[in-house]
Amino acid sequence: MSTQPIEPPVEAAALPSAPSPAAPLFAGQGLGCIRGDRVVFRGLNFACQPGDALLLLGRNGSGKSSFLRVMAALVAPAAGQLLWQGQPVQDDREAHGLRTRYLGHADAIKPVLTVAENVSFWVRLWAPETSDVEAAVHQALELFDMGRLADVPGRFLSAGQKRRVNLARLFAAPGQVWLLDEPTTALDKASIAVLEARIAAHRARGGIVALSTHTDVVLPGARAFHMEDFSPHREGLTENDDDDSAFGWTEG
Q1: Gap between the Cα atoms of 216 and 212, Å rounded
Q2: 57: alpha, beta or left, given left = phi > 0 and alpha = psi -120 to 50?
Q3: What mean pLDDT is reported for the chain?
Q4: Distance CA 141, CA 119 (A)
Q5: Tens digits of per-residue pLDDT, 177-221?
Q6: 175's torsion region: left (phi>0), alpha (psi -120 to 50) or beta?
Q7: pTM, whole model, 2 decimals?
Q8: Dist CA 84 CA 65 (whole Å)
Q9: Higher per-residue pLDDT: 26 or 242
């Protein structure tokens, strides 16, 4: 009785495994925030890769300022955790402070210092490695046509001029993560256009931006967060619950 040779089974070709998505550079998981005796937001998740932008929307009291302060590690979350490259930010808050630039409602302008001295102070604090502070300050002020006021003390500036100086320190020492609370307040259209251009350039270099606003800001591809969606009590938001001054927060 003859037998036929048994052919070895043909192994199925291994399917290529799907590439795993890259871990986010900057992320928040299950974030919650309590101010006073009120839960401002809860269950908030975000994930940012280089070049990403978050747009925080909602009326006053919805948690925009609180969210930005949590992202800056100025306020510890009541729940969840903030992560940088998968590691808790709280493990090294100093490193997080060096890479983030938080600009709040208050203009951090010292009235006795000149415009140039105000910006120079922040450059030395935020980016002590800057080799030519004077040049960095000059270039940042010129973006807003403020170079002509470089020697003017802060107490003589208008609200719009103070806001431009406030933003100029951001441009002079840009950092990696920009956290901007109502940055267009008191700005004219030309200055808003400058800000939009600088944000676009920052993102093109791999920077991350999160900003709150009540006005139209050109922020292509930004992920919008409607903060009321994360509130446990959507009714009864007051007009000033989320202002910095409501909790005694100031900057500068």
Answers
A1: 11
A2: beta
A3: 86
A4: 9
A5: 999 999 999 999 999 999 999 999 999 999 999 999 877 889 999
A6: left
A7: 0.82
A8: 20
A9: 26
Which residue matches tokens 């070709």?
13
Q: In what order do the strands lie in the sheet with 38-48?
A: 38-48, 26-35, 79-84, 87-88
Query: What would the 3-class secondary structure string for the chain be?
Result: CCCCCCCCCCCCCCCCCCCCCCCCCEEEEEEEEEECCEEEEEEEEEEECCCCEEEEECCCCCCHHHHHHHHCCCCCCCEEEEEECCEEHHHHHHHHHHHEEEECCCCCCCCCCEHHHHHHHHHHHHCCCCCCHHHHHHHHHHHCCCHHHCCCEHHHCCHHHHHHHHHHHHHHCCCCEEEEECCCCCCCHHHHHHHHHHHHHHHHCCCEEEEECCCCCCCCCCEEEEHHHHCCCCCCCCCCCCCHHHHCCCCC
Tell me which amino acid residue 135 is.
A
What is the per-residue pLDDT across 51-91, written as a single tens digit (0 to 9) for each? 999 999 988 888 999 999 999 999 999 999 999 999 999 99
Single-letter code of the amino acid located at 124: R
Which residue in the block uniquely carries the two structure tokens 């003859």? 2
Strand partners, 26: 48, 84
Q: Which of 36, 83, 86, 28 is nearest to 225 (CA)?
A: 28
- Amino acid residing at 95: A
